[in-house]
Amino acid sequence: MPEITSQSVKPISLILLVHQEAETIAQVIKDFYDKVIAKIPGSQIIICEDGSTDGTKEILKNLAKQYPLTLDLREQKRGYTGAMKDGFALAQNPVIFFSDSDGQHDPADFWRMYPLLEQYDMVIGWKKNRQDVWYRLLMTYVFNKLISLYFGTKLHDIDCGFRLIKKEAVSFLLQQTWRIKHCVNSELTVKVRAAGFSVGEIPVAHFSRQFGASRGLPVKKLPKIVWHILSGLPQIKKDIKQIKAGQTKP
Ligand SMILES: Nc1nc2c(ncn2[C@@H]2O[C@H](COP(=O)(O)OP(=O)(O)OP(=O)(O)O)[C@@H](O)[C@H]2O)c(=O)[nH]1
Ligand SMILES: [Mg+2]
């Protein structure tokens, strides 16, 4: 693997999605800035926040005085998928670094992921030692098996929200209709593959949520979420056929 130095790295656009992260967001931004952004001239930090009522917005406005933040703050909740799409549209640099903003990732993993862009258009973090409750670990295992069988992918953690994506792949995704609201990272991954972009993975660190209970997959809403995802898969398969027929990759 080629050795990388911060001089040989292309400018990146870091996208952080944020909702109700008052307790963590300041430390998370500091960490990403110190470990990655400050070392790569020309890089940007895009913050897509919506619907927070816990003081997150005010903290972000203050942090923008200290760090090079592009703030996209909304009163109404547009949701994870909507925020992600808006973040992609704001990204200007050749490499997009996408991450959750809840302090569960180590920004320094960027330096192990970046060299894989020599080989791949998208590099996904694989939370090998995932720090989540048992039912989420089980669901993730079953979900990855299901997606592998249905779409022929061979990835361990296809929905991981910690990844690097080349700008061309992001531009392609912005032209697509995104079908599912939950596990959208999986949909985007199978679609970029269908368009001829290459996808790789690498184990990354994962920490448990430091503040508050897990919110990603609330037990009460589970049946609705599972049904939403399963009923969306055939449509994604149809989209993939069309993408392959058109071979959208330039
Ligand atoms: N802008 C925006 N960000 C969101 C929304 N929902 C979640 N996020 C952010 O997306 C990231 C992932 O959401 P989480 O709720 O942590 O999901 P998770 O990691 O699967 O679940 P946890 O166990 O609670 O950590 C976090 O950084 C959230 O702040 C949303 O509706 N809008
Ligand atoms: Mg989380």
TrEMBL record:
<keyword id="KW-1003">Cell membrane</keyword>
<keyword id="KW-0472">Membrane</keyword>
<dbReference type="GO" id="GO:0099621">
    <property type="term" value="F:undecaprenyl-phosphate 4-deoxy-4-formamido-L-arabinose transferase activity"/>
</dbReference>
<dbReference type="GO" id="GO:0005886">
    <property type="term" value="C:plasma membrane"/>
</dbReference>
<dbReference type="Pfam" id="PF00535">
    <property type="entry name" value="Glycos_transf_2"/>
</dbReference>
<keyword id="KW-1133">Transmembrane helix</keyword>
<dbReference type="InterPro" id="IPR050256">
    <property type="entry name" value="Glycosyltransferase_2"/>
</dbReference>
<feature type="domain" description="Glycosyltransferase 2-like">
    <location>
        <begin position="13"/>
        <end position="170"/>
    </location>
</feature>
<protein>
    <recommendedName>
        <fullName>Glycosyltransferase 2-like domain-containing protein</fullName>
    </recommendedName>
</protein>
<dbReference type="GO" id="GO:0009103">
    <property type="term" value="P:lipopolysaccharide biosynthetic process"/>
</dbReference>
<keyword id="KW-0448">Lipopolysaccharide biosynthesis</keyword>
<keyword id="KW-0812">Transmembrane</keyword>
<keyword id="KW-0808">Transferase</keyword>
<dbReference type="InterPro" id="IPR001173">
    <property type="entry name" value="Glyco_trans_2-like"/>
</dbReference>
<keyword id="KW-0328">Glycosyltransferase</keyword>
<dbReference type="InterPro" id="IPR029044">
    <property type="entry name" value="Nucleotide-diphossugar_trans"/>
</dbReference>
